Amino acid sequence: PELDGPESVRDVVLATERVHSFLSGLLAGLCVLLVITATGLADPHTHARWLPLILAAITAGWAVLHGRSYTDRWQGTALAATGATIVAAVCVRYALGLGSPTALLVCCAVTVGVPLIGLILAMAIPNNFYTPVFKQLVEWTEYVALLAMWPLGFWLIDVFAAIRYR
User: If we measure between CA atoms, which residue out of 23, 57, 17 comes closest to residue 38?
Assistant: First the structure.
């Protein structure tokens, strides 16, 4: 692009483009890391199978909600795709790990149902007008999901048990 104007404006535009590409790279790395860790922690053979599922669902929900805060469409889409990928990857791991027809049916239903619910909500909720109360509610939901990930993760990897029995 041609940059007209004083040199200080050109410097600001170039620095903005550099920061934008740096943030895109960080988000891409975060998305890959979220999918790998959520899938890796979701072990269907533990005594508390529900805990990794709750952690993966909260992580996927946080990724989708956090994606709305970016003005760049690619960055928001990457985080929304990460949420859907976490759901699909955890479902595949549980379906392969448990190996029962019931688990396969439930995982297929979740893998199809979650994007379908998202599509219905995207069509039902208007994208041009949000009330301030609704925006605040979504923002607080994102914060609660972010704060819930830490204790659930510590509980899943037995940090609390290690502290208790030290």
Answer: 57
